[in-house]
Design brief:
- The protein has one domain (2-93).
- Helix 1 runs antiparallel to helix 2.
- By secondary structure, it is mainly alpha-helical.
- It has helices at residues 2-37, 43-93.
């Protein structure tokens, strides 16, 4: 159980870091958009930056979603295992 708690804390830390990175890239993209609108960026530069950032954002968001799913799966497996342990006596009685 201790290892599970450590793993959960590690996943939460990773999720927090990913969330911060996602927000950072969203802010960068927003700033680039503002620079384009004020003609401080040329449209081809914006396209390059946007392409790069959108790709990185998609990968980070996919990793973030995967972390949520992994934790739910582990918790479900633990709950099922505990329920099975509680019912094990009825299996051997019959």
């Amino acid at each position: 159980m201790e290892a599970y708690k450590e793993q959960i804390i590690e996943k939460q830390n990773e999720k927090g870091q990913l969330l911060n990175q996602i927000k950072d890239y969203e802010n960068r993209l927003s700033k680039a958009r503002q620079l384009l609108m004020t003609n401080k960026f040329d449209s081809s530069d914006y396209k390059d930056i946007k392409s790069d950032y959108v790709d990185k954002l998609a990968r980070m968001q996919a990793r973030y979603s995967g972390l949520n799913t992994d934790q739910d799966d582990i918790e479900n497996l633990l709950n099922q295992g505990i329920e099975n342990l509680f019912r094990i006596h009825s299996i051997y009685e019959n």
